[in-house]
Amino acid sequence: MLRNYYETDYIHTMRDLLERSEKKYGLDYAYKELDPERNLHSYTFVQLREDVDALGTSLLERALQGKHFAIVGESSYSYVVSYMAVSMGLGVIVPLDKELSKEELHKLICKSDAEVLLYSDLLSDDVEEMRGICPEVHTFINISMYGTKKESLSILDLFQEGRSLINSGNLRYKTLPIDRNALSAILFTSGTTGVNKGVMLSHKNILTVIHSAFSMFRFSDVSFSVLPINHTYEFNLHVLGCLYGGITLCFNDSIKHVKDNLKIFQPGMSLMVPMIVESLYKNIWKEAEKNNLTKHLQYGIWFSNLIRKVGIDRRKLFFKPIAESLGGNLQTIVCGGAPLRPDIVKGFEDIGISVYNGYGITECAPLIATNCTMKNIAGSVGFVIPDNLVRIADTDEDGIGEIQVQGDNVMMGYYKDPVSTRKTFTADGWFKTGDLGYLDRKGALYITGREKNLIILANGKNVHPEELEEYILDHLAYVKEVVVYAPLSPEGHEVMIMAEAYVEDQFLIEKGVDEVKKILKEDISKLNHKLSVYKRIHDVELRECEFEKTSTKKIKRYCIEREALSHVKYHH
């Protein structure tokens, strides 16, 4: 259990956050980004405050106070300005995933009661159609700052309009009252179960996790943003966190430019999800193999670890080429979204990069626990943040039970869904995460699986599919993705455990489909011998394509379960 925390300032509203950052960091750079022509643009904390006030003033004078603002776009400075302008007492912001179809966008716009749509050039071609299918939206604003497309209302026009109003003495927006307990944002869950719920967060919910994060970490002065900005993890902890900490946040413009952008921005840290972290780690070893340097790297790690035991750290020197491929300064990766394999954490630590795995959920704004600068335990998701409480409910014989949370970061409820809200809280007011885990004697939290994913066999035995998936990935290097599940029998019982695997492309090319199927079945059979009888995988199928995922790279399990129901196969 952590007993000492870093001293941090409490902030109460988004305006407090913005004013504090402007006063404390002034002309330092808050955000950097590349335009479509890949020209670099940088914005200071002072400019951010001025642009937020200008946009907010213009929107207020258009009689938009109290409205719900949907926002769709890629990670950008203008996205941050738009989000902040709405959040400063003007209205409620509703971030939506840019990967959604027009039909899905319409559904969530309706569900959130949005009347204003803030969008980037990405959606520009669809705006006319959106006007037709979203009659409830009366105001459309293009927030792209570098686009060539001319819209009836653009963020640049609103900046100019707002500045003129402020210069003429209009201070209405700057003095808007803000209730820290009032609804600030509606965030839709990413839908791994196929259902999107609107999570209601207040200023208090959001700012609580920023305070907690900085109580547990000391960060670099430059960070790199690669995750979708509409998610709570990326926006609350990364975008707003960097604003709080005076950290320059650099936006990645495309997944295909990650390597180049790391070299341009040279960040010291980044927030990622396990799939990206694991991909980076695999690429390090692929590059070593391609250049016949695998043994050289293995020896370097062995020797480096040996001399570190006597206090000599030469990782910066030994692994300089790897560091340069990641921009040259990357020292810290904070990883959330799912538990991260301990060998990946150790692997990065061996070459001089600290990876801190944490745990959160949208309903908790999102942070619940994290490893941190003071203590990092591989395999765990760290320690409960200082601003909330965690308990493990309904534990089994191994001490595993549902993780339940109480604290100022816990949501107000689901938007217009009192039934789901009631179901997700206990009678004594604890939020039920639906995740299974346990706390060890040191107070570190471990995630063992998702309650909804738990396989309950006909014989009453419980199996955590995530445990088996990790076991397969740890032992079969050629398996890129795997999902373990149990299809239902006609009687409604989960009778046996199945697996679907997607393998590395190169392995498939070298061996061929039939040979890979044979190898996969043989290897699963060998692994089964090391498992308890009830945990054994009865059949494995080779998948032709990657699993369908959410925008934060989580596999949509309900899609696999739906496929399984449509063609159940039993093998005895």
SSE layout and pairing:
Elements: H1 14-25, E1 29-34, E2 40-44, H2 45-61, E3 68-72, H3 77-87, E4 92-96, H4 102-112, E5 116-119, H5 127-133, E6 139-142, H6 155-167, E7 183-188, E8 198-202, H7 203-216, E9 222-225, H8 232-245, E10 248-251, H9 258-265, E11 269-272, H10 274-290, H11 294-308, H12 315-318, H13 320-325, E12 332-335, H14 342-350, E13 354-360, E14 367-370, E15 383-384, E16 388-393, E17 401-407, E18 413-414, H15 418-423, E19 431-439, E20 445-450, E21 455-456, E22 462-463, H16 465-475, E23 479-485, E24 497-503, H17 505-511, H18 513-528, E25 537-542, H19 557-566
Parallel strand pairs: 1-10, 3-4, 3-5, 5-6, 9-10, 9-11, 11-12, 12-13, 24-25
Antiparallel strand pairs: 1-2, 7-8, 8-18, 13-14, 14-15, 16-17, 17-19, 19-20, 21-22, 23-24
Helix pairs in contact: 1-2, 1-8, 2-3, 2-6, 7-8, 17-18
Question: Can you put this structure into words, describing what you see?
Answer:
- The protein has 572 residues and is α/β, with parallel strands linked by helices.
- The chain has three domains: 14-178, ANL, N-terminal domain (Rossmann fold); 269-328 and 331-452, 3-Layer(aba) Sandwich (Rossmann fold), CATH 3.40.50.12780; 454-566, ANL, C-terminal domain (GMP Synthetase, Chain A, domain 3).
- 36% of the residues lie in helices and 22% in strands.
- The strands form six sheets. Strands 2-1-10-9-11-12-13-14-15 form a nine-stranded mixed β-sheet, sandwiched between helices. Strands 4-3-5-6 form a four-stranded parallel β-sheet, sandwiched between helices. A four-stranded antiparallel β-sheet has the order 16-17-19-20.
- A hairpin with a 5-residue loop joins strand 21 and strand 22.
- The longest helix has 17 residues, at 45-61.
- The chain is globular, with a radius of gyration of 25 Å.
- GO terms for molecular function: ATP binding; long-chain fatty acid-CoA ligase activity.
